[in-house]
């Protein structure tokens, strides 16, 4: 019976039927999709009217209907603001570094773990590496700050013990170190969890392919190069496209918590922290909405471009 | 059969989507129910203690959680004897969001308790607050204890009073200042510690003899650095730095071009560069500070909470070695500056924060009557020390509760209860509480007295500047001046931190020059003009 209905859905004749007939025919599948659609509609589409706020001088008492329209005033203010170029530069540089280092890191971990023969050892490593994902940034940053402290900081003590430095280094107050600290704590926190998806993808590769390669005399490295990596390219590209769409989300909590020293503002101020510091904290809702909308538009454009590029090699999202 | 399966899926899907809808709506329902719960009471002939009074109360701070009403001896007593019940609306750690949500959804609590200034002004301008003037004479405690001057200062632009003050005072208060580590001080031969030169040579000596010890611990966000400004000239106070405006005659002038500020930053840079100030000054957390001072790893400790943090540190060190511990000393000053005019603390007669009654309240008079009772002698005794019989019995002539044996012996339980009662203290009467405390403290032998009280009475309160005239001089954040102020605040925070890390004096000056220029480009003059005008209005109100 099931086979029949599947065949009916797939049949050529069926395609010509109206949308609703086809919809009813696969209702059991569609019903599973509906809750997700409802969720997206309520929490992503419904609140979207709020972007109109960015064209108003929003008055929290009057609400949406009693606030005056001001056109592009808030966008202009953001572009003219002395912080604009600095914020944009930091956002792009930090995102780019994340893409360059944070993105391949879990893939490399997944490939390395795949090569570990000792199952129990592999499981232990996997568990240890994904646990930090469940710690909140407040805890991770507290940990980072006490490790990196000048007085009694573990890292400085270690470096001094090995005679690598004569005087403790003030890691959290020197702008040159900030990007490195930010990216490496991020990698430490997320590497194990992000690797899970790639480990799953690798597990999906047919083991017979490896066996055949072994018989042909392929080395381990060759197997990684010609079987493992091509086997998970599809997954990598999908995540790559999504990461490009996120390029203006350089981070929020981590930066807010790690860049406490105002000296770092020149290198740490990104769009999201700027929205929080200048917009939300001062109740400038329209300004915050305008900057947020600007960010979304650029992100959509980037996502579309990345997808178009991926389509050229036949692996696009849509 | 297939149809059955399908309809089952359909029902499942419907249930799922409905539950999503319900969860989205339930928040709104809760809020509207809260309003309905509030009991009316007859507004006209209200008598506190006879007419039952219920109101909802929101504390606008991330850290604030009100304890459940009626679960402890004090609020139980109030519930039984005054027929007052307060329903808490908690901030849940996100006060800003909660506050904005309540406004945007039009569902305000009956009472909002929070900082003066921006939020109160926003509510007032939108006509959401109840003026209190009509009740001032009928319920006399607030008028009696706060006085007309303070109430005038609290009045809004329209001349009406909307704010019920908390911890208002007629006498100086504060917790900041320098404390020295007794053991290290004695070891190093107890040198004279009065001027900045003394400070510098003492810190150098500490660094030489105790390489592991932080010579000068400046606390959270480098607060102690601001003390250097206060000591550089007479009548300079730490508050100038917070407002980023220096009074000169009857105008407020730029912080960055002020020679005294510049001199203090050059000195701070020198101390920092020579590693005499903690190198984690700007980035460290409160726990890091605590660890250092509790272990006695600092020679001089100075920030705005010295009497608070110092009390614990002092008792930990004293427990190990009676010779150890901390002593608060008179603030350092530049050679030639009158030490009696160095102010490392500030107080204003308006106190800490305020309660406002919103138009959502069904019985504003009742709420005022309760707050007024709370700020009076009886209310303060109950909410600070609990109902009569446990920790106090009988009162002195001035109304101070007289401590019982239980008060001295039952420290653990008492500390716990007093912390709970502190969450109900919305109309703190500093003058009454402090006088009551000292009545009891003076009955104790000298070595039994509280370290904080001794430090406050001997030093901290005497170095506290009356800054009432500088209250509320800052603009609303979404106004033109407010946008400028946010930029100036950014510039000031950055230059202060950068100046510490500068390599020499020239660089400090160059940084301050650049800050001055950036500030002028951002519209600093306009902001200073606004602040000057507000300040002058305040002076007029005080002298009225």
From TrEMBL, chain A:
Keywords on record: Cell membrane, Membrane, Transmembrane, Transmembrane helix, Transport
Subcellular location field: Cell membrane
Transmembrane segments: 20-46, 92-113, 134-157, 177-203, 224-244, 285-310
Entries under InterPro entries matching the protein: MetI-like, MetI-like_sf, UgpAE/MalFG_permease
Keyword flag Acetylation: no
Superkingdom of the source species: Bacteria
Family statement drawn from the similarity comment of this UniProt entry: Belongs to the binding-protein-dependent transport system permease family.
This protein's name: Aldouronate transport system permease protein
Organism: Paenibacillus macquariensis
Automatic annotation (TrEMBL), chain B:
InterPro entries documented for this protein: Bact_solute-bd_prot1 (IPR050490), SBP (IPR006059)
Segment forming the signal sequence: 1-23
Signal is among the record's keywords: yes
Keywords, ordered alphabetically: Signal
Taxonomy, superkingdom: Bacteria
Family annotation (PANTHER family): ARABINOSE-BINDING PROTEIN-RELATED, DIACETYLCHITOBIOSE BINDING PROTEIN DASA
Name of the protein described by the UniProt record: ABC-type glycerol-3-phosphate transport system, substrate-binding protein
Source species of the chain: Paenibacillus macquariensis
Origin organism lineage: Bacteria, Bacillati, Bacillota, Bacilli, Bacillales
């Amino acid at each position: 019976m099931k086979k029949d209905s599947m065949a009916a859905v797939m049949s050529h004749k069926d395609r010509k039927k109206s949308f609703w007939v086809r919809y009813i025919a696969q209702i059991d599948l569609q019903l599973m999709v509906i809750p997700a659609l409802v969720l997206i509609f309520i929490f992503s589409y419904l609140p979207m009217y709020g972007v109109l706020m960015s064209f108003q001088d929003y008055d929290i008492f009057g609400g949406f209907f009693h606030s005056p329209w001001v056109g592009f005033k808030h966008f202009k203010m953001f572009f003219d603001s002395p912080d604009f170029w600095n914020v944009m530069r930091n956002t792009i540089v930090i995102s780019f570094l994340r893409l360059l280092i944070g993105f391949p890191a879990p893939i490399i971990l997944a490939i390395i773990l795949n090569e570990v023969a000792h199952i129990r050892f592999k499981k232990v490593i996997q568990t240890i590496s994904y646990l930090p994902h469940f710690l909140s940034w407040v805890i991770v940053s507290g940990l980072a700050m006490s490790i990196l402290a000048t007085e009694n900081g573990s890292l400085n003590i270690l470096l001094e013990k090995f005679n690598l430095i004569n005087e403790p280094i003030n890691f959290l107050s020197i702008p040159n170190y900030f990007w490195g600290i930010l990216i490496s704590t991020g990698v430490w926190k997320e590497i194990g969890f992000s690797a899970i998806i790639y480990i799953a993808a690798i597990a999906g590769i047919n083991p017979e392919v490896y066996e055949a390669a072994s018989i042909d005399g392929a080395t381990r490295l060759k197997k990684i190069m010609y079987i493992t990596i091509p086997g998970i390219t599809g997954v990598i590209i999908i995540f790559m496209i999504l990461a490009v769409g996120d390029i203006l989300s350089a981070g929020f909590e981590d930066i807010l918590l790690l860049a406490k020293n105002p000296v770092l503002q020149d290198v740490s101020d990104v769009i999201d922290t700027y929205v929080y510091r200048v917009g939300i904290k001062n109740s400038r809702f329209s300004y915050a909405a305008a900057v947020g909308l600007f960010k979304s538009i650029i992100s959509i454009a980037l996502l579309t471009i990345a997808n178009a590029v991926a389509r050229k090699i036949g692996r696009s999202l849509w | 059969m297939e149809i059955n399966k399908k309809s089952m899926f359909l029902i499942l899907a419907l249930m799922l989507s409905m539950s999503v809808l319900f969860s989205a709506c339930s928040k709104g329902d809760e809020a509207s129910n809260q309003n309905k719960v509030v009991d009316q009471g007859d507004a006209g002939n209200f008598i506190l203690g006879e007419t039952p009074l219920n109101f909802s109360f929101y504390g606008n701070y991330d850290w604030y959680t009100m304890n459940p009403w009626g679960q402890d001896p004090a609020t139980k007593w109030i519930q039984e004897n005054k027929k007052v019940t307060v329903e808490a609306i908690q901030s849940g750690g996100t006060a800003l969001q909660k506050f904005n949500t309540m406004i945007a959804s039009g569902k305000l609590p009956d009472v909002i308790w929070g900082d003066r200034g921006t939020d109160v002004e926003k509510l007032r301008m939108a006509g959401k607050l109840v003026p209190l003037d009509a009740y001032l004479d009928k319920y006399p405690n607030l008028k009696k204890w706060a006085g007309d001057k303070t109430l005038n200062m609290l009045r809004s632009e329209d001349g009406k009073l909307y704010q019920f003050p908390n911890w208002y005072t007629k006498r100086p208060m504060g917790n900041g200042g320098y404390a020295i580590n007794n053991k290290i001080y004695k070891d190093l031969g107890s040198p004279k510690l009065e001027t900045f030169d003394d400070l510098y040579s003492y810190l150098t000596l500490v660094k030489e003899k105790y390489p592991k010890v932080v010579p000068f611990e400046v606390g959270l966000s480098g607060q102690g650095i601001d003390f250097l400004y206060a000591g550089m000239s007479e009548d300079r106070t730490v508050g100038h730095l917070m407002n980023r405006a220096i009074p000169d005659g009857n105008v407020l002038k730029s912080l960055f071009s002020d020679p005294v500020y510049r001199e203090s930053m050059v000195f701070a840079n020198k101390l920092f560069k020579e590693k005499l100030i903690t190198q984690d000054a700007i980035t460290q957390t409160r726990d890091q500070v605590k660890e250092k001072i509790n272990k006695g790893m600092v020679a001089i400790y100075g920030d705005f909470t010295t009497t608070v943090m110092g009390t614990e540190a002092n008792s930990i060190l004293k427990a190990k070695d009676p010779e150890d511990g901390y002593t608060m000393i008179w603030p350092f000053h530049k050679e030639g500056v009158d030490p009696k005019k160095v102010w490392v603390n500030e107080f204003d007669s308006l106190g800490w924060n305020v309660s406002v009654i919103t138009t959502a309240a069904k019985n504003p008079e009742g709420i005022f009557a309760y707050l007024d009772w709370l700020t009076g002698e009886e209310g303060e005794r109950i909410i600070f020390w609990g109902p009569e019989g446990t920790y106090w019995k009988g009162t002195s002539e001035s109304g101070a509760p007289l401590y019982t044996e239980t008060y001295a012996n039952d420290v653990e339980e008492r500390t716990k209860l007093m912390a709970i009662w502190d969450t109900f203290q919305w109309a703190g009467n500093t003058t009454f509480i402090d006088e009551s405390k000292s009545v009891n403290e003076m009955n104790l032998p000298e070595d039994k007295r509280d370290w904080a009280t001794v430090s406050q009475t001997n030093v901290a309160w005497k170095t506290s500047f009356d800054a009432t005239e500088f209250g509320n001089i800052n603009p609303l954040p979404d106004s033109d001046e407010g946008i400028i102020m946010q930029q100036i605040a950014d510039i000031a925070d950055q230059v202060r931190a950068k100046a510490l890390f500068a390599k020499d004096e020239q660089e400090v000056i160059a940084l301050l020059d650049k800050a001055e220029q950036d500030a002028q480009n951002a519209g600093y003059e306009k902001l200073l003009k606004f602040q000057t005008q507000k300040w002058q209005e305040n002076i007029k109100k005080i002298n009225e």
